Protein 1
Amino acid sequence: MATRGFTRKTSPADYADRIPPGQSRTEGFPVLSAGPTPRVSLGDWSFTLKIGPRPMMRWTWEEFTALPQTKMTRDIHCVTKWSKLNTPWRGVLIDDILAEAGLALPPDYTLAHSFDGYSTNVPTADLIGGKAMVATHYEGKPLTPEHGGPARLLVPHLYFWKSAKWINALQFLERDEAGFWELRGYHIYGDPWREQRYRGD
Amino acid sequence: MTDATLQAGHVQWQEAVIERIERQTEGVKSFLLRPQTWRSFRAGQHLDLRLTTPDGYQTQRSYSVASAPGFKGLYELVVERLDDGEVSPFFHDVAEVGDAIKIRGPIGGHFAWGPEDGGPLLLIGGGSGVAPLMSIVRHRAAVGRDVTVVLLHAARTWDDVIFREELIARDATEANFTLLLSLSRDTARRPQDFGRRIDASLLNMTLARLGTAPRLTFACGSNAFVEAVTGHLLDIGLDPRTIRTERFGG
């Protein structure tokens, strides 16, 4: 049922088929974080691949940025109701990270970890096959701290809380384990096209 | 605390009727909504609102609940009018008492406080970012008077201070509650307030009011505001794990 007197301000966008239900297009790039922006120097930065509790491989910033670079331009969708189209990223595909580690068949579930203690879970299938990367650049420039720099996960087909800022590890697990927001009422998977915002959606 | 469970009912859309509209400041109004089914919540949580045009276009927004969980039957939302917005001008210029709005929630498990979380608390709000903090202040007064709270509330001018009279009255009458105002484009009207923006020295003076390091800090406002404030708090040496943020705009 219509809301009395409510009218849309913008004309129906050409991109309407790219905006998931309940989302509004933004030209800006809002910042959402559960806490302060952590201060991560490149000298202290590292990225670790783990299987369960066991570290498999660890990269310094220099080593990590020497891995094959891939560009990806995608639409992104934040659970706080904004979508941003055509965002250009550069970084290292999860496929290339796995290849470098010689890990052909990682376990089915992944927990991404961040320098600030944040975590989020993503099925491993959603990270491979060119679908996701660890991004270090946005619009051709090093990723700024408030947007997750030095490096963030980019899983653009899921709500953007899955694209963990300030990433420092990917941990592969045999069983799905909820991350930070997933433990706090948000959806375990987070598909914007099925509007999976909260647990129960 | 971290396993705030969400009952299935919280995510169901339902109708709420606007029962009262109160002008807070120039450009800011409170809307008191009476939902069909009122559910209790944690101070600091938000509602999702959904508006629909006659041709079926829908848009959603999130608004923090400013009322306390003890204010049963109603949810108070604070809406700042943004000229280029789609939803806030509707609320300010079109919505009337008796209108029905679709809502769901309250939702959110991190930017939330209950007496079990303890204190002392440092609350820092920029403009309408005070809304979820107001819920905490009101809830504390009802159920946690032994918890020490300092609210540092930033606004442009004295007249832009949302909930000013209520907060000043609470400051005068409630033990363990202190209000400090930071007015970026005005002079301080009370001796303890500041006629300038929040900076490191202002935050040091605010922390001195608490006596000890806050167990939790809640900062809410525009991203620029929250980024600046939390940057100073890290410089001062606060443990980042004790700082929770909620940001809007961009």
Note: The helical segments of chain A are 61-64, 94-101.
Protein 2
Amino acid sequence: MAVHNRVAATDQARPEQDSGTRSFSSRVVCVATGFAALIATSALLHALFPPAIPAGVAAKLKFFTEHKNEFDTLFVGTSAIYYSVSPEIFDRTTRESGLPTRSFNFGIDAMHPPENFYVLEQILKTKPRNLKWVFLETADVQTKLHQELGTERAVYWHDWPRTALTLRKALDPRGGAKWYIKISRLWLARRDLATHLALFAKRFANVGRFDFLSSHRDRADTAESELGPKRDGYRLAGDAMSAENAASFQKRLAQEITGARPKQIDPYANEAYRNYARQIRQIGAEPFFVVTPLIFQSPISFRESPPGPLLAFNDGKTYPMLFDPKVRIDDAHLTREGAEEFTRLLAQEFVRRARRP
Amino acid sequence: MLFVEFRFFWFFLAVFAVYWSLRRNDSRKIWLLICSYIFYAAWNWKFVFLLMASSALDYVVGLMMTRSKTRGARRGWLIVSLCGNLGTLAFFKYCNFFISSAAALLEWLGLPASVHTLNIIIPVGVSFYTFHSMSYTIDVYRGKMRAVSSLLDVACFIGFFPQMVAGPIVRASAFLPQLRSLRKFSDVDVRGALVLFLTGFIKKACIADAVAPFADRYFAAPWNFTAASAWVGVLFYAIQIYCDFSGYTDMAIACARLLGYELPINFRFPYFAQNISDFWHRWHISLSSWLRDYLYIPLGGNRGPRWFTYRNIMITMLLGGLWHGGAWTFVIWGGLHGTALVLHREWVRLIEQRPQAHAIMRWLAWPLTVYWVCVAWIFFRAVDLPHALPALRSFVFFQSAGTEDLGTWMLWLVAVFAIVHWLNSLGWFSEWWRRAPTPAFAAGYGCAAAVVLLFVPPHYTPFIYFQF
């Protein structure tokens, strides 16, 4: 542990310097050798050991892998899916409508694109035989990280495809910018670039893969709670907002409805959703894209033709029952009553669209 | 910016490459100073001005003391320096402590006072760099060294980034002469420095940061945990603080060494100390020797009757405790160590003529010392006394109403760490890597670094001593 004591003890009689380090070129060769060994060993370890997936995601992934052939419907998205889509109610509604399903909620707190793409890829890798429907929450690629989620949560999905997607978005948020515009954005986007590149480096260098003490601390507690009381991946978020917040919510909602303008999702998310729609179809399932009842009221659409049916619920005029403050916790989340209502509406809309030739 | 962050790696690479490519000593020092201020500004740029002011003050005081003809004038300039440095410390670190303590005292006297504490941000490393600069002016005053005519040298000494924020506390007399001569790369023990850096990195990132969450969890609510968990919490904290601080010091010494400068040793296997006096010759050596030379000896040291020596020990240790921060827990920590030092002196005096007692103490000395150090750590770590006392009760008397278990099985890890530490003290890992050819060493180092990263928690935890 305290090698320095020994190292320091040798200061008095420091050994002669190796002749190999005397010339500049040999020093460069040595530094290059060190880096090459670091990269090669990291790559080898990277191939040998599975990624350190954080406890919450790992719990759902493990459960789904063990029961993958029991489910034919899957919901993937953020907490807006996690706390708002009850598989029990969804399955009951679809059964009553004559299109029975067996669903699992793979919503995870703050799992925005591109993290959701990484998780979806892990799900598809398990090759679930009976999967027929995959509901993907639809949103833009996020370049900002949720600091409160911690670094472990940010590291695991930073493989090169996801990192590259984020970097491209950071440098050219709307897509199609000329190269000199991208270069000029290097300075503006420096923090995002540095953060995502550092996370990619950490993932590549396997940082934290054997952090077994932290794993021991977190995993046991998280696994059960993450799956929810019915072990279908769904959990309740909480109680309705206060009267004070309700007034503010209604005011902002009215402003949103007035100012709503059609909005296309960003080109990077657009491209990624198309790619994953293709992959979902390759395993014999059908993708559905969902916009949850967010306060953000602008009608969202894909660029060009949508890669699958888009079910949008961020419309206070069409779905006023989902925007009643009594069923809302905040701008994105619903109470038990709200979640049940939303799930029923989602199931009915799904059945209607699924039956459409 | 922490030594264990990726960005520090790129920062140091740039510092290192440019530093050694410069030919003139002054250019190198200017480069070092710029980099040191950038390093400090990465935390909070506003406090760079405080650092500059501290350097300027002590530079001027040093020159003025040299020019002063009378001892009184020299003493006056020393007082200016002490007021400046200790005033900075008092304001940033102790202002709120003094205000809240005074309010508590008034309330206790039945004179409740409505006082407001100030919202003060403590500059990182303020305790360290004020001690660096005070060592300069005090040594000039004592005539142990001549005042330096170059402001650049003084600023470099006080702001040198490897040691600026958490030590080791470097003496001006040891560091300033190194700045005067052009450092040669051929004199640098690159291998030793690299191994030392990796060792420090392992201590900090793999060990201290891994056990920290357990100690944090325990000390956040010690009353919730079983007595066995108290042992896990306290022993893990003992491991954490050693690995955190000595890991930082190793990396600081290694970085300085790669730039051609030598910093003093700060730790010498402190948990193998055979008595509390021995512990202080092994733990935070640069602080204990600073306190000895600039506080204990000027107070009279051990020149005088026994009670006089003991008084000096207690004053030194209480102030040493307070140096760590404005809180009564630190004062108690210092008091516990001071008491142990006094008791040890008495004990040594008592058993001098009793050889059988020596035999008994040979077996008891080490566990007793470690136990006492751990008891003192409880006060050092706890946020306040209401948090410290339940932890103390659990650790010392095995009394706790709590039922939560921190993972008693992890106590075996303490044994593993102890064995590795012991093997290291025997020199098992010390020299064999010097025998390998340079390319093999480079390749081995790269492989070792890759393996080490596997065990590093993904999040960064600030160094404990940054807060001091």
Note: Chain A touches chain B through 53 residues (CB under 8 Å).
